[in-house]
Write a structure and sequence with these properties.
- This protein is of the alpha/beta class.
- Helices cover 36% and strands 19% of the residues.
- A hairpin with a 2-residue loop joins strand 3 and strand 4.
- Helix 3 crosses helix 5.
- The chain starts with 13 loop residues before the first strand and ends in a 40-residue tail after the last helix.
Length: 327
Protein backbone atom coordinates (compact mmCIF):
# COMPACT_ATOMS: atom_id res chain seq x y z
CA UNK A 1 0.00 0.00 0.00
CA UNK A 2 1.40 3.40 -1.01
CA UNK A 3 1.07 6.19 1.50
CA UNK A 4 2.28 9.65 0.56
CA UNK A 5 1.25 11.70 3.56
CA UNK A 6 3.55 14.67 4.04
CA UNK A 7 4.85 14.64 0.47
CA UNK A 8 4.16 18.03 -1.13
CA UNK A 9 2.81 18.45 -4.63
CA UNK A 10 5.83 18.21 -6.92
CA UNK A 11 6.80 20.43 -9.85
CA UNK A 12 7.53 18.58 -13.13
CA UNK A 13 9.00 15.64 -11.18
CA UNK A 14 11.67 13.35 -12.56
CA UNK A 15 12.48 10.05 -10.87
CA UNK A 16 16.21 9.23 -10.72
CA UNK A 17 17.15 5.71 -9.63
CA UNK A 18 20.30 3.66 -9.04
CA UNK A 19 20.92 0.30 -7.43
CA UNK A 20 24.02 -1.18 -5.84
CA UNK A 21 25.21 -4.50 -7.17
CA UNK A 22 25.36 -5.92 -10.68
CA UNK A 23 24.57 -2.62 -12.41
CA UNK A 24 26.94 -0.44 -10.38
CA UNK A 25 30.61 -0.84 -11.33
CA UNK A 26 32.81 1.25 -9.06
CA UNK A 27 29.67 2.29 -7.15
CA UNK A 28 29.47 5.09 -9.72
CA UNK A 29 25.69 5.11 -10.20
CA UNK A 30 24.64 4.73 -6.56
CA UNK A 31 27.19 7.42 -5.62
CA UNK A 32 25.61 9.77 -8.18
CA UNK A 33 22.16 9.46 -6.58
CA UNK A 34 23.72 9.75 -3.11
CA UNK A 35 25.39 12.98 -4.25
CA UNK A 36 22.05 14.41 -5.39
CA UNK A 37 20.47 13.43 -2.09
CA UNK A 38 23.28 15.06 -0.10
CA UNK A 39 23.61 18.28 -2.09
CA UNK A 40 19.87 18.92 -2.24
CA UNK A 41 19.11 17.58 1.26
CA UNK A 42 16.65 14.92 0.22
CA UNK A 43 13.91 13.87 2.61
CA UNK A 44 13.11 10.15 2.74
CA UNK A 45 9.36 9.54 2.51
CA UNK A 46 9.17 5.81 1.84
CA UNK A 47 11.12 2.56 2.12
CA UNK A 48 10.21 -0.74 0.51
CA UNK A 49 9.65 -3.69 2.85
CA UNK A 50 12.97 -5.51 2.98
CA UNK A 51 11.25 -8.84 3.69
CA UNK A 52 9.61 -8.78 0.26
CA UNK A 53 12.67 -8.35 -1.93
CA UNK A 54 15.96 -9.24 -0.23
CA UNK A 55 17.78 -12.44 0.71
CA UNK A 56 19.44 -11.50 3.99
CA UNK A 57 22.13 -14.16 3.51
CA UNK A 58 23.18 -12.28 0.37
CA UNK A 59 22.64 -8.71 1.62
CA UNK A 60 23.00 -8.92 5.37
CA UNK A 61 21.53 -6.39 7.82
CA UNK A 62 23.94 -4.40 9.95
CA UNK A 63 23.89 -3.76 13.69
CA UNK A 64 24.95 -0.40 15.12
CA UNK A 65 24.86 1.55 18.37
CA UNK A 66 22.77 4.68 18.82
CA UNK A 67 23.55 6.21 22.21
CA UNK A 68 24.25 2.77 23.63
CA UNK A 69 21.09 1.25 22.11
CA UNK A 70 21.64 -1.48 19.53
CA UNK A 71 19.74 -0.97 16.29
CA UNK A 72 19.48 -2.85 13.00
CA UNK A 73 19.58 -1.39 9.49
CA UNK A 74 17.95 -3.65 6.93
CA UNK A 75 18.98 -3.67 3.26
CA UNK A 76 16.23 -2.03 1.27
CA UNK A 77 15.36 0.63 -1.30
CA UNK A 78 14.41 4.11 -0.11
CA UNK A 79 12.69 6.97 -1.89
CA UNK A 80 13.38 10.62 -1.12
CA UNK A 81 12.27 13.89 -2.64
CA UNK A 82 14.36 16.99 -3.33
CA UNK A 83 12.95 20.41 -4.17
CA UNK A 84 15.03 22.21 -6.79
CA UNK A 85 14.30 25.92 -7.03
CA UNK A 86 15.61 28.58 -9.39
CA UNK A 87 14.25 30.12 -12.56
CA UNK A 88 12.90 26.76 -13.74
CA UNK A 89 12.05 24.77 -10.61
CA UNK A 90 11.86 21.01 -11.01
CA UNK A 91 11.64 18.39 -8.29
CA UNK A 92 13.36 15.02 -8.19
CA UNK A 93 12.26 11.73 -6.69
CA UNK A 94 15.40 9.80 -5.79
CA UNK A 95 15.35 6.00 -5.62
CA UNK A 96 18.42 4.41 -4.06
CA UNK A 97 18.91 0.90 -2.82
CA UNK A 98 20.31 -2.53 -3.53
CA UNK A 99 19.38 -4.69 -6.48
CA UNK A 100 16.61 -6.95 -5.14
CA UNK A 101 17.20 -10.67 -4.71
CA UNK A 102 13.67 -11.75 -5.66
CA UNK A 103 10.22 -10.66 -6.90
CA UNK A 104 11.55 -8.23 -9.45
CA UNK A 105 8.17 -7.72 -11.14
CA UNK A 106 6.53 -6.78 -7.84
CA UNK A 107 9.50 -4.55 -7.01
CA UNK A 108 9.13 -2.63 -10.28
CA UNK A 109 5.37 -2.38 -9.88
CA UNK A 110 5.83 -0.83 -6.45
CA UNK A 111 8.33 1.72 -7.79
CA UNK A 112 5.95 2.53 -10.65
CA UNK A 113 3.12 2.95 -8.15
CA UNK A 114 5.06 5.73 -6.44
CA UNK A 115 5.89 7.28 -9.82
CA UNK A 116 2.20 7.31 -10.77
CA UNK A 117 1.03 8.78 -7.46
CA UNK A 118 3.67 11.51 -7.57
CA UNK A 119 3.00 12.47 -11.20
CA UNK A 120 6.51 11.55 -12.39
CA UNK A 121 7.02 12.66 -16.01
CA UNK A 122 10.30 10.84 -16.70
CA UNK A 123 12.27 8.01 -15.08
CA UNK A 124 16.06 8.09 -15.39
CA UNK A 125 17.88 4.96 -14.22
CA UNK A 126 21.65 5.16 -13.84
CA UNK A 127 24.09 2.29 -14.10
CA UNK A 128 27.79 1.64 -14.53
CA UNK A 129 29.56 -1.17 -16.35
CA UNK A 130 33.09 -2.46 -16.81
CA UNK A 131 34.60 -1.62 -20.17
CA UNK A 132 37.79 -1.42 -22.22
CA UNK A 133 38.14 2.29 -21.60
CA UNK A 134 41.28 4.14 -20.43
CA UNK A 135 41.06 6.12 -17.19
CA UNK A 136 42.87 9.01 -18.90
CA UNK A 137 40.03 9.82 -21.29
CA UNK A 138 36.54 11.23 -20.66
CA UNK A 139 34.19 8.60 -19.26
CA UNK A 140 31.84 7.32 -21.97
CA UNK A 141 28.19 7.66 -20.95
CA UNK A 142 25.50 6.07 -23.10
CA UNK A 143 21.89 7.16 -22.95
CA UNK A 144 19.48 4.44 -24.08
CA UNK A 145 15.72 3.93 -24.16
CA UNK A 146 13.21 1.37 -25.41
CA UNK A 147 10.93 4.11 -26.71
CA UNK A 148 11.73 5.05 -30.35
CA UNK A 149 9.92 8.39 -30.03
CA UNK A 150 11.87 9.26 -26.89
CA UNK A 151 15.11 8.21 -28.57
CA UNK A 152 14.40 10.62 -31.40
CA UNK A 153 13.25 13.60 -29.35
CA UNK A 154 15.96 13.34 -26.65
CA UNK A 155 18.85 12.29 -28.92
CA UNK A 156 19.25 8.87 -27.29
CA UNK A 157 20.10 5.40 -28.54
CA UNK A 158 17.23 2.98 -29.01
CA UNK A 159 18.34 -0.13 -27.17
CA UNK A 160 18.96 -3.26 -29.22
CA UNK A 161 20.55 -5.22 -26.39
CA UNK A 162 19.84 -8.93 -26.03
CA UNK A 163 21.18 -11.04 -23.16
CA UNK A 164 21.28 -11.20 -19.35
CA UNK A 165 20.06 -8.07 -17.63
CA UNK A 166 19.87 -6.54 -14.18
CA UNK A 167 17.25 -4.54 -12.35
CA UNK A 168 18.08 -1.45 -14.42
CA UNK A 169 17.01 -3.20 -17.62
CA UNK A 170 13.94 -4.74 -15.98
CA UNK A 171 12.76 -1.43 -14.49
CA UNK A 172 13.25 0.37 -17.79
CA UNK A 173 11.12 -2.20 -19.61
CA UNK A 174 8.47 -2.05 -16.86
CA UNK A 175 8.28 1.72 -17.32
CA UNK A 176 7.96 1.35 -21.07
CA UNK A 177 5.11 -1.16 -20.78
CA UNK A 178 3.38 1.11 -18.25
CA UNK A 179 3.60 4.07 -20.61
CA UNK A 180 6.10 5.98 -18.45
CA UNK A 181 9.00 7.57 -20.41
CA UNK A 182 12.24 5.97 -19.20
CA UNK A 183 15.93 6.43 -19.97
CA UNK A 184 18.99 4.53 -18.81
CA UNK A 185 22.36 6.27 -18.46
CA UNK A 186 25.39 3.96 -18.46
CA UNK A 187 28.93 5.00 -17.51
CA UNK A 188 31.86 2.83 -18.60
CA UNK A 189 34.38 2.13 -15.82
CA UNK A 190 37.93 0.92 -16.66
CA UNK A 191 37.94 -2.79 -15.85
CA UNK A 192 41.57 -2.65 -14.67
CA UNK A 193 40.72 -0.22 -11.87
CA UNK A 194 37.17 -1.19 -10.98
CA UNK A 195 37.39 -0.82 -7.20
CA UNK A 196 35.05 1.79 -5.76
CA UNK A 197 34.81 4.67 -5.51
CA UNK A 198 35.13 6.07 -9.00
CA UNK A 199 34.29 9.79 -8.71
CA UNK A 200 35.20 10.41 -12.34
CA UNK A 201 32.45 8.06 -13.54
CA UNK A 202 30.02 9.50 -10.99
CA UNK A 203 30.77 13.01 -12.28
CA UNK A 204 30.23 11.90 -15.88
CA UNK A 205 26.81 10.46 -15.01
CA UNK A 206 25.77 13.67 -13.27
CA UNK A 207 26.93 15.79 -16.20
CA UNK A 208 24.87 13.64 -18.57
CA UNK A 209 21.86 13.82 -16.25
CA UNK A 210 22.26 17.59 -16.11
CA UNK A 211 22.08 17.81 -19.89
CA UNK A 212 19.15 15.41 -20.06
CA UNK A 213 16.79 17.09 -17.60
CA UNK A 214 17.98 20.68 -17.87
CA UNK A 215 19.00 21.18 -14.24
CA UNK A 216 22.26 22.61 -12.97
CA UNK A 217 23.60 20.11 -10.42
CA UNK A 218 25.89 21.40 -7.64
CA UNK A 219 29.07 19.34 -7.76
CA UNK A 220 30.57 20.16 -4.38
CA UNK A 221 34.00 18.51 -4.18
CA UNK A 222 33.19 15.86 -6.78
CA UNK A 223 35.13 17.50 -9.62
CA UNK A 224 38.19 17.76 -7.36
CA UNK A 225 37.80 14.16 -6.22
CA UNK A 226 37.60 13.00 -9.84
CA UNK A 227 40.81 14.80 -10.73
CA UNK A 228 42.58 13.41 -7.68
CA UNK A 229 41.38 9.91 -8.55
CA UNK A 230 42.85 10.17 -12.04
CA UNK A 231 46.17 11.49 -10.74
CA UNK A 232 46.35 8.58 -8.29
CA UNK A 233 45.69 6.00 -11.01
CA UNK A 234 48.23 7.74 -13.28
CA UNK A 235 50.89 7.32 -10.61
CA UNK A 236 50.05 3.67 -9.99
CA UNK A 237 50.00 2.85 -13.70
CA UNK A 238 53.40 4.52 -14.15
CA UNK A 239 54.87 2.14 -11.56
CA UNK A 240 54.01 -0.93 -13.64
CA UNK A 241 55.29 -1.01 -17.23
CA UNK A 242 52.77 -3.65 -18.29
CA UNK A 243 49.86 -1.62 -17.01
CA UNK A 244 51.25 1.57 -18.59
CA UNK A 245 51.61 -0.19 -21.94
CA UNK A 246 48.09 -1.59 -21.69
CA UNK A 247 46.63 1.83 -20.88
CA UNK A 248 48.48 3.31 -23.86
CA UNK A 249 46.95 0.68 -26.16
CA UNK A 250 43.47 1.54 -24.85
CA UNK A 251 44.17 5.24 -25.41
CA UNK A 252 45.20 4.64 -29.01
CA UNK A 253 42.15 2.50 -29.71
CA UNK A 254 39.82 5.03 -28.09
CA UNK A 255 41.33 8.02 -29.87
CA UNK A 256 41.13 6.28 -33.24
CA UNK A 257 37.53 5.16 -32.73
CA UNK A 258 36.33 8.54 -31.48
CA UNK A 259 38.17 10.80 -33.89
CA UNK A 260 34.84 11.99 -35.39
CA UNK A 261 33.82 13.19 -31.91
CA UNK A 262 36.36 16.00 -32.17
CA UNK A 263 33.70 17.89 -34.09
CA UNK A 264 32.30 21.36 -33.76
CA UNK A 265 29.13 19.93 -32.20
CA UNK A 266 31.03 18.05 -29.48
CA UNK A 267 33.19 21.06 -28.68
CA UNK A 268 30.10 23.27 -28.53
CA UNK A 269 28.44 20.95 -26.00
CA UNK A 270 31.45 21.14 -23.68
CA UNK A 271 31.69 24.91 -24.05
CA UNK A 272 27.99 25.32 -23.21
CA UNK A 273 28.46 23.27 -20.05
CA UNK A 274 31.44 25.41 -19.08
CA UNK A 275 29.40 28.60 -19.58
CA UNK A 276 26.55 27.26 -17.45
CA UNK A 277 28.90 26.51 -14.59
CA UNK A 278 30.76 29.80 -14.94
CA UNK A 279 27.48 31.72 -14.76
CA UNK A 280 26.52 29.65 -11.72
CA UNK A 281 29.68 30.66 -9.87
CA UNK A 282 31.43 27.29 -9.56
CA UNK A 283 33.36 27.22 -12.82
CA UNK A 284 36.63 27.31 -10.89
CA UNK A 285 35.82 24.04 -9.16
CA UNK A 286 34.83 22.51 -12.48
CA UNK A 287 38.10 23.42 -14.20
CA UNK A 288 40.59 23.29 -11.32
CA UNK A 289 43.74 21.26 -12.06
CA UNK A 290 45.34 20.95 -8.63
CA UNK A 291 44.43 17.58 -7.06
CA UNK A 292 43.42 17.40 -3.44
CA UNK A 293 45.12 15.08 -0.95
CA UNK A 294 42.96 11.98 -1.39
CA UNK A 295 43.67 8.36 -0.66
CA UNK A 296 44.92 6.68 -3.78
CA UNK A 297 42.95 3.77 -5.19
CA UNK A 298 44.29 0.20 -5.04
CA UNK A 299 46.90 -0.78 -7.61
CA UNK A 300 45.23 -1.55 -10.94
CA UNK A 301 45.52 -5.12 -12.15
CA UNK A 302 44.77 -5.97 -15.79
CA UNK A 303 42.27 -8.78 -15.98
CA UNK A 304 41.01 -11.08 -18.69
CA UNK A 305 37.24 -10.95 -18.77
CA UNK A 306 34.44 -11.09 -21.29
CA UNK A 307 33.49 -7.85 -23.03
CA UNK A 308 30.71 -5.84 -21.51
CA UNK A 309 28.55 -2.99 -22.81
CA UNK A 310 25.46 -0.98 -22.12
CA UNK A 311 22.06 -2.00 -23.28
CA UNK A 312 21.93 -0.88 -26.87
CA UNK A 313 25.41 -2.28 -27.59
CA UNK A 314 26.40 -5.77 -28.66
CA UNK A 315 27.74 -7.09 -25.38
CA UNK A 316 26.63 -7.41 -21.78
CA UNK A 317 25.43 -4.22 -20.16
CA UNK A 318 26.28 -4.97 -16.55
CA UNK A 319 29.31 -5.23 -14.33
CA UNK A 320 28.44 -7.98 -11.93
CA UNK A 321 28.62 -11.75 -11.65
CA UNK A 322 27.04 -13.93 -14.30
CA UNK A 323 24.84 -15.71 -11.78
CA UNK A 324 22.57 -12.74 -11.07
CA UNK A 325 18.97 -13.43 -12.04
CA UNK A 326 15.50 -12.08 -11.78
CA UNK A 327 12.45 -13.64 -10.33
Amino acid sequence: MIELEGVPELVDPVMVAAFEGWNDAGDAASAAVAHLDKEWKGEVFAALDAEDYYDFQVNRPTVWLDGGVRKITWPTTRLSVVRVGGDKPRDLVLVRGIEPSMRWRSFCNEILGFAHELGVELVVIMGALLGDTPHTRPVPVSGVTSDPDLARTMDLEETKYEGPTGIVGILQEACTHAGVPAVSLWAAVPHYVSQPPNPKATLALLNRLEDLIGLRIPLGELAEDARAWQVGVDQLAAEDSEVAEYVQSLEEARDTAELPEASGEAIAREFERYLRRRDGGDGAAYLRDTPSDRTRPPKPKPTQRPGQGAEGENDSEDSGPADSSDD
